[in-house]
Specification:
Length: 102
C-alpha cells in the first residue's frame, strides 16, 4: 500500500507509520551537522520510530533495527554495536507478544 500524504499514514492501521514512513527492517539516519561522532542503534517496533527524529541532533548516525522484519542472527552483518549507544524501545504490545520478534 502506497501512501500519498501524512494524513493517510495517520488513518492507517498503525498510525506510528507517520514517523519514518512506515515499517522497515533497517533505517539509517545520518546527521552531518552533529557536534560529535556518536552513533545510536535503536531496536524498535513502529512505536520506537516516533522517538528517533527527536534524537537526531545528538548523534552523527542513528540506525533503527526492527526485529519483526530481520533476524537477530543477521543484525551483526549490518550494525556494529561495539562503539555505539544502544536503545531497546518497544510498545507494550510487542513486548507482551514477543513471538512477533524474529
Amino acid at each position: 500500500m502506497l501512501f500519498r500524504s501524512m494524513e493517510e499514514f495517520l488513518d492507517s492501521f498503525d498510525s506510528y507509520n507517520v514517523f519514518l514512513s512506515g515499517p522497515s527492517s533497517l533505517v539509517e539516519i545520518t546527521n552531518e551537522d552533529a557536534s560529535n561522532s556518536k552513533e545510536l542503534i535503536i531496536f524498535r517496533d513502529s512505536f520506537g520510530s516516533s522517538i528517533a527524529p527527536l534524537l537526531v541532533p545528538h548523534y552523527r548516525k542513528i540506525t533503527l533495527v526492527d526485529l519483526r522484519y530481520i533476524s537477530e542472527i543477521t543484525v551483526d552483518k549490518y550494525v556494529d554495536i561495539k562503539n555505539s549507544d544502544v536503545l531497546f524501545l518497544y510498545s507494550a504490545t510487542s513486548v507482551n507478544k514477543s513471538f512477533l520478534l524474529k
